[in-house]
Amino acid sequence: MALFTASDLGIQYGADSIFSGVSLEIQEGAHIGLLGANGAGKTSLLRVLAGELEPSSGEVHRAKSTRIGYVPQIPVLTSGGALYDEIMGAFDEVRLLEEELAASAHAIQEAAPSERARAEGRYAALLERYEAFIVQDPENAVQRAAAGLGLNAQALTTPASAASGGERTRAALARALLAQPDILLLDEPTNHLDLQGLAWLDGFLAAYPHALVVVSHDRYFLDKVAAQTWEMENGRLRAYPGNYSRYRVLKAEQTLRQQRSYDKQQAHIAKEEDFIRRYRAGQRAREARGRATRLARLERVAGPQRESTVAMPTIAASHTAQVVFATRDLHVGVATDEGPRPLLTVPDMKVERGARIGIIGENGAGKTTLLRTLLGLQAPLVGRATVGNGVNVGYYRQGLEDLPANATVLDAFLQAAETPMGEARSYLARFLFRGDDVDRRVGQCSGGERARLALARLLVTQPNALLMDEPTNHLDIPSREALEEVLQAYDGTLLCVSHDRRFVSLLADQLWVARNGQVEVFSGTFDEWQAAEEEAEKQREAMSKAARTPRPPRLARLPGPLAAGTRPVLKTANVDHEKLISELEARLRTLEQQLQSAAERNAFAEVASLGREHADTQVALDQAWEAWRASAGE
Predict the structure, then answer these.
(1) CA–CA separation, 511 vs 505, rounded Å?
(2) What is the pLDDT of residue 535?
(3) Beta bridge partners of 520
C-alpha cells in the first residue's frame, strides 16, 4: 500500500530552482536512503514529505491517518522539561488513544440500539490504531533508547534548554524512534553519534517495521539500513533498488550505458554533418538535404550529467625523523573548577613515520584532548608527549574554530599560504569556490563550505604529519571520497579521529581505542577490530549463559587439575570418571577466570583462544558425566 505519493514536485526559492519534476511513492515498510550533494535539495524534499514546506509546484497525496515523524538536523524540543520528558513525549499519542478507547467503550454501553453499530465501529478503529504501537514498557523503552544513543542518566535529567546541541538531537531522535510513526523521516541522524550509538541505530532502523526515509552521507550506515536508494542530482530524483553499495554499481552501469549511447549518436551526427557539408551542392544535394532534415528532427541523447565535485590536490610530504610522536607516562585530561579531570591513560608509544592510525571511542572519551596534547596545545596531566625532528604538523579541528568568521574565503585562504592571487583562486576552485564565492564571508558559509575551506587551508601547507579530528563532518559523499583518495596516496603520517566507519576502514592499519579511561592499541584494520569485538561479545554471552545454566551436583573434589593450556581428551576405558570430572570442572573455572581477565583487557586473540579451549573442555566434561552415569548404571 502506498502511504505517500507525489507528482511533478518542484521547489523554487526566488529565481533559484532547487528541484523540479519530481515524482515519488513511499510504500508501507519501505526503507529508503536519500543521497545527493550538499545543496541538492534533500532537506527541502524531506520537509515537503513532512508537511512543513509547501511545494512550489506539483501534487502531494498522503494515505488517510498516516502518522509521520520528522527529525531535522537541528530539532526544536517542545516539552520544556528535562530530556527524559522530551523522549517520553513519544507515548503521548498512546495515552490519548487509551483515554479515547475508554470513552469509546463507555459510549458503546450507553448507545441506543440504533447507534451501537457506529459506536462499535469507532471503537474498532481506535483499537486498530492502538495496536499498531509495539507493546512495551515506556520507561524501560526510554532508558534503552537513551542508552543506545549515548544519553546517560545525568543527561536525561538535564533541562532541554541547558543541553548541548548533540544531546538535544539525540533526544529528538529517541522520541521519534519510540513513537513508531508510519513514515519516519530522518535528516542526518548519525551526526553526534559515536560508534556505539551508530551500531545501535543501525540495528534499530534495520529492524524498523514501518517506512523510513533517511538522508545521510554515512555510507556504512546506508548499506545497513536502506533497501532502496533515491538520488537527488541536477534538480531531479532517480530511484535505485538496493542499498548504497548496490546503488553505486547500478549508477556506474547506467552512466556507462548513457555515455556509450551519447558517443554513438555523436559519431553518427558527425558523420551525417560531414556528408551534408560535402554534398550540399552537386548531384547528391537532394540526398544531403534529406539527411539534414532527418538530422534536425533527431531526438538527441544527453550525455551523462555530472555535478561539480571537489578535486583535492595531492600532498607531497617531506621527510621526517623515524619517530614522529612519542609518549611516556602520559595522562591526558581537562581542567575544571573542581580541578583536573583525567580522561585517558596512554601507554608508552612511538608513532613511526608513515603510520596510519585511526582513533575511535565514545563521545567524551578524550580523543580530541589526546590530539591536542600530542600537538602541545594542551598540557598533559602527567608525563610527556614529544614531536620528532623535521615534523611539519597539519591539524584539522573538528569545530573549525580556527576559521576567521569575518574574513572572506579568499582572505582566509591567504592567511594560511602566501600565494599569488591567481594561484589562490585556482586552488580554491578545486574545492568548489568559484567566481564570487571567494568573496563571501566565512561566517556566511554553510557547514560543508567551511569544511572544504578548512581542508584547502590545511592541504596547501603540504604537512608531513596530519592530525585530523572528524574531517568528514559536514562533507557530502563525493567530498569524502575525494579526501579519502588524497589520504590513501599520502605518504606522510596520519592520525585521525573519526566516527565514519567507511573512512576509518579505508585509511587506518592501526587503531587507538579510547574507552574505560585507557588508550588500547589494536594492530589491525577497523574491520579486523570489529570482528574481534564481535567474537569477544559472543564469548562473554557464552560465559554468561554457561553461568546461568544449572549443572549436575559436583562430586567430591580431587587434587590434580589439568595443567594450564592442556586440551582434555576423554578416554572411556580404565578411567577414574570422578577424578576426570573434578579435573575438568577445575579447568573450566580457571578458564572462566582467564576469559574474564582477557575480556577486561580487550586481549581479543587471547579471548578467542581461551574461548575455544573453554568450549572443548565443556564438551569433554559433558562426555565425562555421560560416561560416569553409564558406569553407575552398570
Answers:
(1) 10
(2) 86
(3) 513
Sheet hosting strand 16-27, strand order edge to edge: 16-27, 2-13, 57-62
Strand, coil or helix: what is 339?
strand
pLDDT score at 550? 55
Beta-bridged to residue 601, according to DSSP, are: none
Burial of 49 (0-12, 13-18, 19+ CB in 10 A): buried
Pair 519, 534 in one domain: no
pLDDT of res. 17:
87
Same domain, 376 and 504: yes
d(C-alpha 55, C-alpha 543), whole Å: 57
Q: For the residues of 169-192, what is the DSSP string, one character each?
A: HHHHHHHHHHH--SEEEEESTTTT
* Residues 368 and 464 grouped into a single domain: yes
Task: Classify residue 605 by burial, with Cβ atoms within 10 Å: 0-12, 13-18, 19+.
Answer: exposed
C-alpha cell at 556: 567430591
Q: Is 488 found in the same domain as 460?
A: yes
DSSP 567: P
Say how far apart CA 304 and CA 262 lie, in whole Å.
8
Which residues in 129-153 are b (16+ Cβ under 10 Å) and which e? ebeeeeeeeeeebbbbbbbbbbbee
Name which of 233, 221, 234, 307 is nearest 33 in CA terms: 221
Residue 8 lies in a domain: yes
Name residue, grid cell 526566488: 14
Q: Is 263 contained in some domain?
A: yes
CA angle 211, 212, 217 (to 5 degrees): 155
pLDDT of residue 137: 72
Question: Count of CB atoms within 10 A of residue 478's CB?
Answer: 19
So what's the pLDDT on residue 561?
A: 43
> Whole-angstrom Cα distance, residue 399 to residue 473?
9
C-alpha distance from residue 314 to each of 8, 166, 307, 397, 451 (Å): 43, 34, 22, 20, 18
What is the spatial distance between Cα 624 and Cα 477, in angstroms, rounded to a whole number? 58
Size (the chain), residues: 634
- Contact at 8 Å (CB) between 10 and 41? no
554 in any annotated domain: yes
Q: How far is CA 511 from the centre of its chain?
A: 18
If you compute the radius of gyration of the chain from its CA atoms, what whole number of angstroms results? 32
Q: Which residues of the chain have pLDDT under 70?
A: 79, 129-136, 307, 546-577, 595-596, 598-609, 611, 632-634
What distance in Å separates the CA atoms of residue 257 and residue 191, rounded to the nearest whole number? 36
**Helix axes 577-600 and 526-548, enclosed angle (nearest 10):** 140
Residues 284 and 237 reside in one and the same domain: no
Per residue in 366-394, pLDDT (tens digit) is 999 999 999 999 999 999 999 999 999 99
Do 404 and 346 fall into the same domain? yes
Residues contacting residue 587 through CB under 8 Å, at least 6 positions apart: 561, 562, 566, 568, 617
Residues 513 and 583 in one domain: no
The amino acid sitting at 416 is A
Q: How many domains, the chain?
A: 4
What number of other Cβ atoms are within 10 A of residue 548's Cβ?
7
Domain membership of residue 595 as a residue range:
528-633
Cα distances (angstroms) measured from residue 508 to each of 347, 494, 501, 529: 19, 8, 10, 11
CATH of the domain at 38: 3.40.50.300
Determine the number of helices (DSSP H) and then strands (DSSP E) in the chain.
20, 19
Assess whether 484 and 384 both reside in one domain. Answer: yes
Q: Which of 510, 502, 506, 500 is nearest to 486 (CA)?
A: 506
In a domain, 230, yes or no: yes
Contact 123, 104 (CB under 8 A): yes
